[in-house]
Each structure stands twice: as C-alpha cells, then as structure tokens.
Amino acid sequence: MGFIDTVKARAKANKKTIILPESMDRRTFEAAQTILKEGIANLIIIGTPEEIAENSKGLDITGATLIDPFTSEKTQGYIDAFVELRKSKGMTEEQARKTLLGDYMYYACMMVKMGDADGVVSGACHSTSNTLRPSLQIIKTKPGVKLVSAFFLMVVPDCEYGANGTFIFADSGLEQNPDPEKLASIAGCSAESFELLVQEKPYVAMLSHSTKGSAAHADVDKVVEATRLAKEQYPQYAIDGELQADAAMVPSVGASKAPGSEVAGKANVLIFPDLDAGNIGYKIVQRLAKAEAYGPVTQGIAKPINDLSRGCIADDIVGVVAITAVQAQAQDK
Predict the structure, then answer these.
(1) Which stretches does DSSP call E strand in the chain?
(2) Which of 41, 191, 211, 288 is 20 to 30 A removed from 13 (C-alpha atoms)?
C-alpha cells in the first residue's frame, strides 16, 4: 500500500469533519466527490446555492453538508465570537459580518474555532496569505510552538532513498528566510510531522551547499547554528548538519563526507536553508522525478488548517484532506 493510501485508510478509521471553503472552484467538487465516495472524511462545503450548483454540475456530492453563510442560523454566533476575538483590534459587528460573508476562509476558521469542524483545506484559487491570515487571526499558533511553517510531503517513485522514497521538504511554502532559531523550530516540527504521517523514524538533515565545514560563508554559519539549536531543543530526534543533499541522502556519499553522522546517508526530512531553496527543490523533484507532492501542509497552527498549491489537481486536494484528517486525529490524543 502506497503512502497516500495508508493515510486515507487511517483517515477512514476515525472520520473527521473537514471544510472546503472554495465553492467557486470546480476542483473542490471533483475532490469532494472522491472523498465522499471513498469515505475519507465528513465534508462541509461553504457557498451559496448558486455557487454550489454552478460549480458542481454533473458531480455527485451527496453526503456533503452545504453551508450558506448568508442564511445559516449559526452565522450570527460566529460574527459575535469574531467580534469578541478581535475587539482589541477594534473589530465591529459590521466589519465582522463583512469579513465572514466576504471571505469564506474566515467563516471556515470560525467554524473550527467554535468546534463545528476539525480542519480546513483551502488555497486552490487563493494565495497562501489568504489561507493563513484568517487561521493565525482566529485559530492562533499551537501552544509552545514558535512559528507556523509549511512542508511538502514528497513521494518519489522507484526511489531507494528516504523512507522508501517518502520525504518531508521544509520549509517549502511559507517562511522566506528563517534565522537559526526559526530554522531549528522548523526542523523539530517537521520531524514530529514525519513521525505522525509516515509513521517511521525521522532522520533530519539541515541542508547547505557545505558539508561539515567544506565551505565557509555566512549562509553556512546560519545552518551550523540552527543545527546546534535543533539538537539542543529536540534531543528526541536524529538531527544533523550542515549537509549537502547528496551527503544527506546517499549512504556512500554520507559515509565519505560525514563519517560518524547519525543522519548522513539516511535523511528523510530535508530542512532547506530558505524558502527559495525549498520551493525550487520540491518543484524540481515533483516535475523531473514525477513525484507526488502533497502540500503545502502547515504545522504549528492550533488546529489543522492546510494550504494548496494553486496549480493543484483534484487528487491533490483529496490527499491533503486525508492528511488534514490524520492531523486532526492526533489532536484527540
């Protein structure tokens, strides 16, 4: 059974309620049809009857809960709670109503905040900032977590490296140029995410153009310091750096360039030094190696709120909904 099939099976075993707020995009309904048919999650779709009818033509979304924010009896309660939540920022009832009815992502986050759903998947036709801004204003960060970051879960076919070709690439979707403290936090959160989703031991490589002092530069110094902090803060995980990508993944290269490293040659969690490297890296692997790329999956938010690439297809949405459901299950523990 492949990675995403395993995740789907776990999602089906304890079904969670996930919101899809992008009723203006047909891919939402193509994905919903598959999710409902396979029993991966309970779904809520937010939209007016006209939006839903127009974009779901010919598709079977029987079983989804359809919420029209303009007529739902719960809308006023969400507005009142949003005003209370943002009163220190000067939020008025009129502003709250306009925000929740004008942007379904805000409405979805209020549903999660009020306990009416377990998670949200959005971003097929909205930017990452449009997906994450409401989450951070309403849901907030997870206690004890320093920042919200994002990763792609990569499944590379016919690959002998990583966990049978499965990797986490982070941060490849959100944090532009993390300092050592942020990079260390991304490493710890990514190790935890790998453990949860892949159910194997994470081996975390702090990537650089240098391996163990082979090059001297301020960019290398950043990764060296991040590695030190990550090892100190997350002693439960195998973390090492700075490592070049080949030293991180290929056993023979790892043994040559970083002898004695617990991670070199075994890495399955790749921590990139900045967003440019992470985003470029995942897209190269996705396109040239024909890898499955699920994400950007967020980590560090108090409830599972996940973004999508605007270039996604319906199957990508299905996969991210399954991942979101498994993240939601973990919060029950």
Answers:
(1) 17-20, 42-46, 65-67, 119-121, 149-155, 166-170, 203-207, 238-243, 269-271, 292-299, 305-306
(2) 191
- Could you tell me the CATH number of the domain that includes residue 227? 3.40.50.10750
161 and 107 in one domain? no
297 inside domain: no
Answer yes or no: is pLDDT of 220 > 80: yes
CA distance 233 to 266: 21
Q: Are residues 56 and 95 in the same domain?
A: yes
63 and 162 in a single domain? The answer is: no
Which two structure tokens, joined as six digits, stand for 190? 């990514």
Closest Cα partner for 198 from 1, 6, 9, 11?
6
| pTM of the complete model | 0.88
Assess contact for 261 and 276: CB atoms under 8 A. Answer: no
Structure tokens at 25: 């995009």
pLDDT reported for residue 258: 94
Residue type, 83: V
φ, ψ of residue 6 in degrees (nearest 5)? -65, -45
Report phi then psi at 165, rounded to 5. Answer: 85, 5
Helix (H, G, I), strand (E, B) or coil at 269: strand
Residue 186 has pLDDT above 80, yes or no: yes
Mean pLDDT of 15-30: 94
d(CA 230, CA 220): 15
Q: Are strands 292-299 and 149-155 parallel, antiparallel or unpaired?
A: antiparallel
The candidate with the shortest Cα–Cα distance to 11, out of 56, 44, 46, 43, is 43
Decide if 227 contacts 241 (C-beta within 8 A). yes
Expressed as residue numbers, the domain containing 190 is: 149-288
Tell me: do 201 and 78 sit in the same domain.
Answer: no
Distance of alpha carbon 269 from alpha carbon 171, whole angstroms: 11
